[in-house]
User: What shape does this take?
Amino acid sequence: MRVLGIETSCDETAVAVYDGERGLMANRVWSQIELHRPHGGVVPELASREHVERLLPMIEDSLGDAGIAPQAIDGIAYTAGPGLIGALLVGATVARSLGYAWAVPVVGVHHLEGHLLAPQLEPGAPEFPFIALLVSGGHTMLVEVAGLGRYRILGETLDDAAGEAFDKTAKLLGLEYPGGPALAALAESGRDGVFEFPRPMLDRPGLDFSFSGLKTAVVVALRGRTLDAQARADAARGFESAMVETLVAKALRAIRQTGIGALVVAGGVGANRRLRAELAAAVVAAGGRVHYPRPEFCTDNAAMIALVGHARLVAGEREALPVHARARWPLDDLAAPRH
Ligand code: KG4
Ligand code: ZN
Assistant: This one.
């Protein structure tokens, strides 16, 4: 089965073609970052309009990349949520219309299920069960993944997502949106121990996260100070250390609590070099192993949506004609396909 995947949940317009035998045949991502940068964050209405303009040409180009005609598509998968409702509806409407025109089945996919199963796009993917640490601009959670549609949320953020905390702190340090990567680069020249920020919720049992207090601690520490370049780097270093240490400690706790040693790291913050290095060292020392999908499969993409859609369509899942899109969608609502 050959599936066209469509992802429009936030500020990336993405299209992919995934074939059950040949694997990924096309994978295009159009990042809208430059469009939103002047506004300091994603503007939902601008995102929707950009999806409208980009999506159909990108589908044509992706079919071209794969070297196939539309008749060679056997099914379509689109991100049905969670995400920005207007943005989601663009992908949903295009997917359902093409499904109708091409007379092929269509399935709406949960965006986070895409992130959780993205490692399967590459050889050497970990076998079920594994623990996933999902750290992006919109989500921070630890999930036990037992199989397709079999997820148990072990812990999640009670307020800001990890990427959001990076971005907000970067803004405080005068860096441009999205500031996570810029803050990480600045932290390279920062010194340890100049700024000591709290490690949120490490003193409490459980696997939930909370990052809004950390951001406040940075605000308080910087208040009334004129920061030279070295001090800004030191502050970035202090913040990054607190984030990394917290994420590593909770991931280790999840491994100990479940007895599952395989850890997958997904989401944009998974690109953070110190997080990668320190997680790898800590998890290996605890007898486990860490798996990082390639960066293009860590961040938002349609390959992961096509992959999940393929698995669900092969299992016989079908949707009726109405379009489904949900701004909020608890991962716990998903079920394994009925065989
Ligand atoms: O998964 P993603 O590409 O998009 C969604 O949130 O859906 O994640 C983007 C987030 C942003 O908050 C960005 O600042 C953060 O990941 N990020 C980083 C790094 N690279 C991206 N945060 C810290 N260090 C990085 N190297
Ligand atoms: Zn995402």
Residues 229-258 form the longest helix (30 residues).
